[in-house]
Structure formats: structure tokens, C-alpha cells
Specification:
Elements: H1 3-19, H2 24-38, H3 43-54, H4 57-93, H5 102-123, H6 129-148
Length: 153
């Protein structure tokens, strides 16, 4: 059992499995199993060591982190969609009269909110604090103009 041959078996089988588009996880498992069989590790020890390494909290938590990321993204998109709908409803609720030009202000706030939203979608800078401040302040102003401001009768 030459250690150089064992390392060669490990690397060659890993690279070959990657080249045939086998997932990295399976490539690592299969190449490690071939190497351990070459160095004559008992099969039961091989199985025990592999199952012991898979029973870690970090590996078990990774799918839940991914799931929470998907759920967070879905609810964030739902929130943005709801803000757009509520802004459109607030524009519809504001009336345009000669003395009160609240509708013009509501439309301009909605246009600014949509501009920031489109810009942040393509530039991916929605996490920058000044862009969030612009967006949420315009969304709050549009909500105020349509729903929370007292109507003049």
C-alpha cells in the first residue's frame, strides 16, 4: 500500500467523477470510498466513519437555512407587490381638485418608488441604507396620502 498511489486514486477518481458531471458530494464520497478500500480499511469501519461524519448539526442545518432564504425572498417579493398595489389604490382614493393636488403628489411618490425599485433590481443595491430610505419613505408617503390622511368633504 503505497501512499502515493492512494493519493493518486483519490485525486484521479474525484477529477474523473467531476468531469462526467457527477455531483461534488457524490464524487467526494465515491473517491474516498475507493481510496479507503485500496488501503484495506474494513468496510464496516468505512460505513461507520461516513455515517458519523454525516450526523453533524451543521450539515443538517444547511437545508433549513436554504429553505428560510427561499421563504424570506418569497415574502419580500410579496411585500413589494403589496406595496405597489396599495400605492395604486391610494392614487385611486386621492381626488384631483383645483385646490387640492394630492393625487399629483401620490403619483409622483409612486413613480419615485417604482424608479428606486427598478434601479435596485438591476443594480442589486437595495441593501444600501440610502436606497432603502428613499424607497420606504416614498412608500410611507404614498400610504399616508391615500389611507391615513383625513379626507376633505
Amino acid at each position: 500500500m503505497n501512499p502515493n498511489i492512494a493519493i493518486a486514486i483519490l485525486l484521479i477518481t474525484f477529477v474523473l467523477l467531476i468531469m462526467i458531471k457527477c455531483p461534488i458530494t457524490f464524487s467526494m464520497i465515491i473517491s474516498t470510498a475507493f481510496t479507503m478500500l485500496y488501503i484495506q480499511v474494513p468496510v464496516m469501519t468505512l460505513v461507520q466513519q461516513m455515517s458519523k461524519q454525516l450526523n453533524s448539526f451543521s450539515l443538517l442545518a444547511i437545508p433549513f437555512f436554504i429553505l428560510m432564504g427561499y421563504l424570506g425572498l418569497a415574502f419580500f417579493i410579496l411585500l413589494l407587490f403589496g406595496l405597489v398595489l396599495w400605492s395604486l389604490r391610494s392614487i385611486g382614493r386621492t381626488g384631483y381638485t383645483k385646490g387640492d393636488r394630492t393625487r399629483v403628489l401620490a403619483v409622483s411618490m409612486f413613480a419615485g418608488m417604482c424608479g428606486v425599485l427598478v434601479h435596485c433590481y438591476f443594480e442589486n443595491i437595495f441593501e444600501v441604507p440610502y436606497m432603502m430610505a428613499y424607497f420606504w419613505s416614498m412608500a410611507a408617503a404614498a400610504m399616508y396620502l391615500g389611507y391615513f390622511r383625513k379626507r376633505k368633504t
